[in-house]
Amino acid sequence: MWIHEVAPERLAEIFHHYQQALMPEVAGKGSEGRGTWKEVPQKEKSRMVAAARLALLELESMVNDQAPARQYFAQPGEAEWGC
């Protein structure tokens, strides 16, 4: 599953990048008030990584809920009959 291939740390970093890019500019400040990922305090980074981890878990549970509960039975019309 692709969700297992995404590192929560990388997702948090990417989210931070786009959050900063989409924030409206504060009058008179331009983009200088926005920090890069390296400038984010470690405590806030940890919180963002934890949120990313929870988001990935939620996405995984949504995908798993959609999987058929009884996969070992053939779907209607798919069973092979005869010898």
Overview of the structural elements:
The structure is a single chain. Helix content is 48%, strand content 0%. Helix 1 (8-22) packs across helix 2 (42-66). With 83 residues, the protein is mainly alpha-helical. It has a domain at 2-22 and 38-66.
Brief digest:
With 83 residues, this protein is an all-alpha fold.
Shape: elongated
Quantity of strands, as a count:
0
The ordered string of helix (H) and strand (E) elements is HH
Number of helical regions: 2
Biggest sheet: strands, sense, closure? none
Distance N to C terminus: 36 Å
**CA radius of gyration:** 22 Å
Look at the helices and sheets and give the structural class. Answer: mainly alpha
**Stretches with pLDDT under 50, minimum 5 residues:** none
Helical percentage: 40-55%
Key descriptive features of the protein:
83 residues; elongated
What topology emerges from the helices and strands here?
Layout: H1 8-22, H2 42-66
Helix pairs in contact: 1-2
